[in-house]
Amino acid sequence: MTQSPKNTDVRALFNTIAPEYDKMNNIISLGTHKLWRQKVMARMTFPEGANIIDLATGTADWALALAEKSDPTAHVTGLDFSEEMLAVGQKKVDVSDYFDKITLVQGDAMALPFVDNTFDIVTIGFGLRNLPDPVLGLQEMYRVLKPGGQLVILETSQPDNPLVKPFWQLYFGQVMPMFGKLFAKGKYQEYKYLDETTEQFMDYRTLGQRLLQVGFEKVTISRFNLGAAAAHYAVK
Questions:
Q1: 108 is in an annotated binding site
Q2: What integer is the mean pLDDT of 27-43?
Q3: Is 87 annotated as a binding residue?
Q4: Nearest to 15 by CA among 106, 94, 96
């Protein structure tokens, strides 16, 4: 059982919310999560025949976007520890134009089942904050990346503008869990947990420092929606 820092069985939680996950993502982010991914991928470089892995792939939205963006000889692996999230994702992959270049696998982002220097690109979107040990996850990402490979992290963040932060806290602390109750079959506590992981996760500067400590180079950061999300780019 994978436990979060709040002693929550995260795998069980995501298995529970899997059926409504895509709908809730659109509601909670007001559709901006798709725009954030588009902006992030516009800054990425896709070598020919790239071997790509999307960690915490969930229902495979980013895996599908990576498959679309990369050339026909590239391959995308989507890894997640929730079998129910992967089941939803597999249905989307099966009816897509990229079913033959995407492989979804169940696994632990803190103990990746791949040898060193396997991937040209590693991505993780809105999943790092749910790892019991995010730094161990970063170390695993570094290990499986090829020298010169790209790491891209897209994650919720905390605004530091004192005028904006109270509204952000109200939205994530009160409104988002209520959306879970109204639109996700009463799953208030599950979405309350997701709010708490967002609020308690390291800020964007600290994450940048952790990347450097792990060994990554050329760390750059982009922020979205007044700091509600941040993208970190790094190279091994």
A1: yes
A2: 79
A3: no
A4: 106
